[in-house]
Amino acid sequence: MQTADTIKGVKELTRHWKKSGRTVGFVPTMGFLHEGHLSLIKASIKENDHTVVSIFVNPIQFANSEDFASYPKDFGADEALCKSAGVDLIFYPAADEIYPPGFSTYVRMEGLTAELCGKSRPTHFQGVCTVVSKLLNIVAPDKAYFGQKDAQQLAVISRMALDLDMDTQIIGCPTIREADGLAKSSRNAYLSSKERQAAVVISKAVFGGERMVAQGERNAAAVLTTMRAIIESEPLAKIDYIEAVDAVTIEKIETLCGRVLVAVAVFVGETRLIDNFIASCEG
Ligand code: PAF
C-alpha cells in the first residue's frame, strides 16, 4: 500500500493504472475509519482492480459552530485498517494541498440541499460538493462509494455527477450498525456511556417507522409521529429534524409513494447523529 500527500502523486499513479487498462475504485472519507468505511472499501476492492481511500477532514463542510477542530483522528489506525483490507493507495493531503491560497471555486447545488441536513447546515453541502468534485477530478475513479447512512449526501453527489457529466459511477452501500442498532459513525466516539445508551433510541425509531411502512402505512405524518414519540421518550435526545422526502429529489412528501427516504437528525447531548430508512412504496 502506498500513501500520497500530493495531488500530483495521486494523479501519476491512478493515470498509470488507467492507461494499463485497470479499473479504479475510490472511497472518500474523513478518517477515523470504522466498519461502515470498511464495507465501502470491501465493495470497492471486490469491484475494481485498484482501490484508493482519501482521508481528509474537509474544513469547508463544517460551519464555525461545528466540530471541525475536535473531529476525531487516528491516522495510524486508519492506515492499518486500509493496509489489512487491501487498499492500494491512501491519499492524505494537508488542507493547503486541497485549498491553496487563492482558492475561489465552489460547487453549489440547489433543490436537493434545501431540506434535511441542508436546512440545519446551510453551507454543508457546498463544502461536500466542492471537495468531492475535486477528489473525483484528482483520482478519476471508475466507481466511488458512499454510505447510505448519509442518504442526502448520496443523493446530492449522485445528482452532481449527473449534472456535471462526471464519468465516475456513484455507488451507495448499506448502513452498517452496532449490535444494538445504532448506525456506525465516527461521531459516536463523542458519546459518553450514558449518551451511547440513549442514542439507541434513534435506530429504534427508524426500525419502528420502517415496520409501519412495511405493514402498509402510507401517511407520512402517522409514521413521523410514531418515530418522534419514540425519540422523545429519551430525555437525552433532542430532535433536529425528522422528515419524509422523495429519495431522489429530497422534496417533502405527505403520502409515501415511490422511493421514499425517511430521515432523522438527533442531538444526543452535544453530538448530532443521523439515521434513515429508504422504502419503495406502491401508491
Ligand atoms: O461522508 C464523508 O465522510 C464526507 O462528507 C466526504 C464524502 C468524505 C466529503 O468530505
Question: Any chance you could write out the topology, listing elements then pairs?
Answer:
Layout: E1 2-4, H1 7-19, E2 24-29, H2 35-47, E3 50-55, H3 75-85, E4 89-91, H4 95-98, H5 117-120, H6 124-139, E5 143-147, H7 151-163, E6 169-173, H8 193-214, H9 220-232, E7 237-246, E8 258-268, E9 271-281
Parallel strand pairs: 1-4, 2-3, 2-5, 3-4, 5-6
Antiparallel strand pairs: 7-8, 8-9
Helix pairs in contact: 6-7, 8-9
The protein binds pantoate.
Rough outline: globular
Characterize the largest beta sheet: strand count, sense, and whether it forms a barrel.
6 strands, parallel
Tell me the radius of gyration.
19 Å
DSSP helical segment count: 9
Query: Which residue ranges are poorly predicted, with pLDDT under 50 across at least 5 consecutive positions?
Result: none
Distance N to C terminus:
49 Å
How would you write the strand order of the largest sheet? 1-4-3-2-5-6
Quaternary structure: single chain
Instruction: Tell how many strands the DSSP assignment holds.
Output: 9
What does the average pLDDT come to?
A: 98
What is the strand content?
15-25%
The hetero compounds bound to this protein are:
pantoate
Structural category is alpha/beta
Instruction: Assign a percent range to the helix content.
Output: 25-40%
Q: Helices and strands, in N-to-C order?
A: EHEHEHEHHHEHEHHEEE
Task: Describe the model.
The protein is an alpha/beta fold and 283 residues long. The chain is 39% helix and 21% strand. The chain has helices spanning 7-19, 35-47, 75-85, 95-98, 117-120, 124-139, 151-163, 193-214, 220-232, and strands at residues 2-4, 24-29, 50-55, 89-91, 143-147, 169-173, 237-246, 258-268, 271-281. It is globular, with a radius of gyration of 19 Å. The protein starts with a strand and ends with a strand. The mean pLDDT is 98. The protein binds pantoate. Pantoate binds at residues 28-30, 58, 61, 128, 131-132, 150, 153.
